[in-house]
Amino acid sequence: MKKLLSIFLLIFLATSRISASETQTLGGIFLEVFLDIMEEFWIESHIHADYDVAPYATRNYYVGYKESTDKADKFYRFQFETGNFYFPYSQSIGNESRIEGIAWKFFGPVFEHVIYTDAREVFRKGRFPVDGNLRLGLTWNIINFNIINLAYNLQWTFWYGSRVLNGLCEGLILRSYPIKPLLIEYRANWQHILTDGYDSSSHMFESHLEVGFMVGKREELFGAWKYFKNGYTGSRLHGFSTGVRLHL
After folding, report:
1. pTM for this entry
2. Which end of the chain has fewer surrounding CB within 10 Å, N or C?
3. Digit-coded pLDDT (tens) for 162-216
4. What is the per-residue pLDDT for 122?
């Protein structure tokens, strides 16, 4: 209710500005009002937000707000997960483990480690037994509601195995907590290799579409479809993943 009142107030102020200002363009006024509304939404969904013990742990939603009488009880959230994946085309299996969270309100760490076994199709350099990818960085919340949660990641990426590479990785995480016990997540990241000899205009792309179910107060089981494309070699891999996630 407070959010709606704030928006109506901003719209009222906008109409006042339109009638009071003759020098400012109409487009500039509406842009200013739009930014004011976005600022209000951002403050409401981040600075005023807290989290339950875990998704659906004590009620039918996850994110709460300080103005509500049934507010959530902590300003942070963390999750630890591990899952195995399989790419049928290359007959390669692997493991992806992640630590991710919000340390305070809207930012926190995101650490990822991926291992590809029999990874011929990753870099196309013979039958090397293992290729690994370590990514360390930070995540920032952009939108923070139960029905839609969007975050941006920026990480240092390091490859080892058939190649030793360094670079930067940026990505997006889109989540939804629509109804107990269902969770939906989509992750996408773009890796830009900075090692000499690699085309700066190309990149690696990875996507991960996931459906999870809370099976305990903090425990979640998930299944996912994965896609990996190496723009430096043209390799494309499709597969599926299953794993477990612990919410803290």
Report:
1. 0.80
2. N
3. 788 899 999 999 999 999 999 999 999 999 988 877 777 788 999 999 999 999 9
4. 59
Tokens of 15: 């109409």
Rg (CA), the chain: 22
Distance CA 179, CA 177 (A): 6
Residue 146, phi then psi, degrees to nearest 5: -65, -40
The CA–CA distances, whole Å, from 169 to 105, 149, 151, 194, 204 equal: 23, 20, 14, 11, 9
Residue of higher predicted confidence among 104 and 115: 115
What would the 3-class secondary structure string for the chain be? CHHHHHHHHHHHHHHHHHHHCCCCCHHHHHHHHHHHHHHHHHHHHHHCEEECCCCCCCCCCCEEECCCCCCCCECCEEEEEEEEEEECCCCEEEEEEEEEEECECCEEEEEEEEEEECCHHHHCCCCCCEEEEEEEEEEEEEEECCCCEEEEEEEEEEEECCCCEEEEEEEEEEEEEEECCEEEEEEEEEEEECCCCCCCCCCEEEEEEEEEEECCCCEEEEEEEEEEEECCCCEEEEEEEEEEEEEC
What are the C-alpha distances in Å from 126 to residues 62, 81, 93, 227?
47, 31, 16, 21
Residue with tokens 């300003």: 75
Structure token pair of residue 198: 């690699």
45/92 Cα distance (integer angstroms): 41
CA distances from 244 to 80, 81, 211 (A): 9, 6, 12
